[in-house]
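Hi everyone,

Forwarding the result from last night's run.
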Amino acid sequence: MTTVLRVPRIRRLAEANRVEFGPLAFYHPLVADGDTPVRTGIQTSAPGYVAPLHWHPYVELLFIIEGEAEVWLQGGEAEPAHLVAGDCVALPADIPHGFRTVGDKPMRLLGIHANPDRVVHYLDRRTDASGYPVLDSDLRPVAPA
């Protein structure tokens, strides 16, 4: 079913919920209510953050707003692509990928999921119904059952 917007959808970063991704990263969902054909959000990651291998059943775009990152597809960890502010990468559907913050400054990115709902399959951790990692009380990922 195609969603037709009849009014503009304005989402403000300052008003967005904060979702913890662990001790080094957090996410603010923006257009993320499930009734638009895409889902967006801003992720902020400290130096040392690594997004573990995961995949989506749709294309994901990452636009680097500030800082630097490296991104790779499964099997390409040894030769990641280097991204700087202003760069965008399109990650193919159904292929595990990862990324990490590079350097000594935080990295912020705009993530665009080509799907109305967030669907994430991590290879090494559990996710909740919204596709976010399940964390323990110390903000550490919970391994799959």
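The chain has one domain: 13-120.

Cheers,
N.
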